[in-house]
């Protein structure tokens, strides 16, 4: 049943990064996907704090909540400063929770770890595209969003490395 659990976690993350990472993102698309991805990370990590009994999973989940909350706050500030519409936080949290509420407890740690690897791979792809975009000074916030993406990439890559270690410690059964 691990696939069942992972499928539900993956649906929560699909609110953001993996749904359109293959397409070139406009600034609004990037803000939407990055903000939604951060919220999905926070919500799945809150669920991990409730459902997991593993100290390493809980420590990783706490780090995800802290880091992604800070990143989302910074992203929202850049977007608002440049009149870029920010997705409604309450709606995205509700959507993320609806996708993960019916998860089962069995093999949660494995499903969470697998999800974190996939989510961070997708997020890194999205942020690399934004970091490598050619900016046009006429585009509101483009330079700041590019800088934000460049600044966040090392942390996201560190999260991916840590998620892979978590995945190795909690293999599918």
TrEMBL record:
Q: Which UniProt keywords apply?
A: Signal
Lineage top rank: taxon: Bacteria
Stretches assigned to the DUF4142 domain: 26-166
Q: Which Pfam families match?
A: DUF4142 (PF13628)
Annotated signal peptide: 1-24
Q: Gene3D superfamilies this protein is in?
A: 1.20.1260.10
From the record, what ranges are coiled-coil? none
- PANTHER family, per database record: BLR2558 PROTEIN
Q: What is this protein called?
A: DUF4142 domain-containing protein
- Organism in which the protein naturally occurs: Pseudomonas umsongensis
């Amino acid at each position: 049943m691990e696939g069942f659990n992972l499928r539900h976690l993956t649906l929560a993350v699909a609110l953001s990064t993996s749904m359109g990472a293959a397409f070139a993102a406009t600034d609004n698309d990037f803000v939407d996907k990055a903000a939604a991805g951060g919220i999905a990370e926070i919500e799945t990590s809150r669920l991990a704090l409730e459902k997991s009994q593993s100290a390493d999973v809980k420590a990783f989940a706490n780090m995800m909540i802290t880091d992604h909350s800070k990143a989302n706050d910074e992203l929202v500030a850049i977007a608002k400063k440049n009149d870029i519409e920010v997705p409604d936080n309450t709606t995205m949290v509700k959507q993320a929770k609806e996708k993960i509420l019916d998860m089962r407890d069995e093999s949660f740690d494995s499903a969470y770890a697998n999800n974190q690897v996939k989510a961070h791979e997708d997020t890194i792809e999205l942020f690399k595209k934004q970091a490598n975009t050619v900016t046009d000074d006429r585009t509101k916030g483009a330079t700041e969003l590019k800088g934000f993406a460049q600044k966040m990439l090392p942390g996201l890559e560190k999260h991916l490395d840590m998620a892979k270690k978590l995945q190795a410690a909690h293999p599918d059964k």
